[in-house]
Amino acid sequence: MNKRIIFNNPNLKLRRQKLRLDSTNSEKVLWQKIRHNKLGHKFLRQYSVEGYVLDFYCPEKRMAIEIDGGYHSNQDARVYDSYRTRYIEAFNIKVMRFWNSDIGHHLNEVLRDIKEIVASPS
Question: 41-86, pLDDT tens digit by residue?
């Protein structure tokens, strides 16, 4: 009997590790602001749900944070991201998306938006 692994599938471990090593500058900046329970809740980096790897995930709040670069602005990527978001939300996970430029130019506003979600009742 094969049990379906939804969260952090061991088959994706190497992919998650590579993504951690190849983090974008924006991901590194945000990680420094949210790691070690700095917002009152634990966040994980490169956490997988089914075959998708999330940039950040807060298990307690069932919240994902995705940081998008310029590639995500083309039509095919927008369609894919929309499908991916709906798929992840089907697991009762809220997905927040920010642009790299949001992290670079509006970090305080991004953190405020994240804090609002994690402060709200689950």
Answer: 999 999 999 999 999 999 999 999 999 986 656 778 889 999 999 9
Cα(100)–Cα(2) distance, integer angstroms: 39
110: left (phi over 0), alpha (psi -120 to 50) or beta: alpha
Q: Is-above-0.70 flag for pTM?
A: yes
Give the start-end residues of each E strand in the chain: 44-49, 52-58, 63-68, 94-99
Q: Which domains does the chain show, CATH number per domain?
A: 10-115 (3.40.960.10)
Residue bearing tokens 């329970």: 37
Cα–Cα distance, 62 to 40 (Å, whole number)? 14
* SS3 at position 7: strand
Residue appearing with tokens 């945000």: 30
Query: CA-CA distance, 95 to 57, in Å (whole number)?
Result: 9
Q: Considering only CA atoms, give the Rg of the chain.
A: 14
User: What spatial distance separates the first Cα and last Cα of the chain, rounded to whole Å?
Assistant: 34
